[in-house]
């Protein structure tokens, strides 16, 4: 039966190729768009993982009744101690604001982050040049800072930035170091930020009010959840509220990864669903061409029936032919999608998974059986005497 | 008929010790020497309905014994093609009974009919009806494919059948590369490859010139000589003359020749003529 299906396809090569094209485009676009989705989520995951998978972010929020805003203050940050949160090994308070940064005639707007020296290790921000500020700088509220890679380039070009003095919101700051280029699209600590001691930023720019966030580092990735819950209770106690009523948010990196993966995968599923419509159109093409084939070969069907072909042999022959047609389309579609996956689409390198390839090939065989089924049943149901009379 | 083909194609009549006849067509290699191959009673077939009803076949009762060579004659529209379709189980009658080789076919449907066609009937058509995309050998193999014969056995028997019609050297040719007479001989090879109880030929020489007609008729003659039952439809008197008995049809009825000459009722007596049937002549045809 397979040989006879191949023979029949070979006999109408152009027609078969055009039919195949429908399935090809359908399968190819489904695979490619699924690949774009998984490529995008892989990128997001690697970005978030770049921030350190054992970090926890505490951010302020409105209370449920929206009557009071619960401040995350330095006192709150200091309330998280090794005693009440043994799994937390570092507490990094942050304030962040926007300020004009000027050097000579060059001036630009930058995100100014006021924090403690642990910031650099906890947020995985190593330095390319110079040194980070130290605990003594923080304690003395010295006017020193570390620049993001882009900011340093904007201000100093290729020149060495270390040791220079620049103006931040009107106050002079000495550059201690420059951070390495970070791969961050989603993170807040971009390459164009300026990091200075918390006390100094509060005194010069933000005042002694609320912190923007507190970043915690867990002892290991295994205890991130435990650390998060310990910190929640510690903060709730400091704020004198019940932990269940907590209005601040405690987010682990894992949760961030989950949330963004969910978002990208639902987006890619939607794209693939749209592409699947073209697969259905391809399938209708298979039905169409098989109907033509059956009608052309009515006489042959009659001959085979006269010679004693059972129902299943006739139906099977056309189903196999249709499946072969759509499977070939599927294979070429997979190959095409694989080829296109080397090109970035929507800014993302698609990642084609083996599972989606098997799925697509399975679906294309399914299309052959389903969309080839109706013509095949029609062929098998013919009365031999009528089929033989067909000219 | 060559020696190797007699070895390949089993003898036309089974020895007396043959197993009881089966009715499911599972054993295509023998048939019943003591039963008529064809026995119909009151076959009727009408087409259409209402005022435009065409009574193509009216109350046809017919008996053909094993080893007979029967020609069915009649003008176009006389119902001979309708009869042929019913005898070939390609169509079902509106009324009447048809026993093919002892099997009552009236209750059979679909795949059961297909199996009976496959095991008990060999068709030869006016327009050859070979599958154009397949070689002569593959065409001859086709009925055996539906009888679940093994590939190597299929090849062997198909070659033997082609040898029987003198076309072994054309086995790999496509139908488009063969002459009309050759095409019809391939069709005959295909018809006899499953050793059917009955060879049904519908105007087999209708599309052939006189040389090819003679070739094909010679093949039929030889087959009949070896005891095969042949029913042939024709409107040419000289073709019909090769048969042992001529059935004349007109307006959907059999005018003459519905039972073997000399037979009384359903009990059939020998006539002694070439191609006529009796239990004794049938047994005598054993090689």
Low-confidence stretches of chain A: none
- DSSP strand tally of chain B: 10
In CATH, the topology of chain B is named Rossmann fold
Strand content of chain B: 15-25%
Based on secondary structure, the structural category of chain B is alpha/beta
Q: Which range best describes the helical content of chain A: under 10%, 10-25%, 25-40%, 40-55%, 55-70% or over 70%?
A: 40-55%
Detailed description of the structure:
The complex is a heterodimer of chains A (391) and B (287). Chain A has 391 residues and is α+β, with helices and mostly antiparallel strands. Chain A has 2 domains: 2-45 and 261-389, no CATH class; 61-247, no CATH class. Helices cover 54% and strands 17% of the residues of chain A. Chain B has one domain (3-18, 30-284): 3-Layer(aba) Sandwich (Rossmann fold). Chain B has helices at residues 3-8, 80-87, 110-120, 136-145, 151-164, 180-192, 210-225, 237-240, 279-284, and strands spanning 38-47, 54-64, 69-74, 95-100, 103-104, 121-124, 198-202, 230-234, 245-250, 253-256. In chain B, the strands form 2 sheets. Chain B has a 6-stranded mixed β-sheet with strand order 6-7-8-3-9-10, sandwiched between helices. In chain B, strands 2-1-4-5 form a 4-stranded antiparallel β-sheet, with helices on one face. The interface between A and B is medium-sized, with 22 and 25 residues.
Secondary-structure blueprint:
The complex is a heterodimer of chains A (about 400) and B (about 290).
Chain A lengths: L1 H10 L1 H38 L4 E5 L14 H6 L8 E16 L2 E10 L3 H4 L4 E4 L4 H5 L4 E4 L1 H8 L8 E4 L2 E9 L13 E5 H9 L6 E6 L5 H16 L9 E4 H44 L1 H9 L4 H30 L13 H27 L3 H6 L2
Parallel strand pairs in A: 3-8, 5-7
Antiparallel strand pairs in A: 1-9, 1-10, 2-3, 2-6, 2-9, 4-7, 5-8, 6-7
Chain B lengths: L2 H6 L29 E10 L6 E11 L4 E6 L5 H8 L7 E6 L2 E2 L5 H11 E4 L11 H10 L5 H14 L15 H13 L5 E5 L7 H16 L4 E5 L2 H4 L4 E6 L2 E4 L22 H6 L3
Helix pairs in contact in B: 4-5, 4-6, 5-6, 6-7
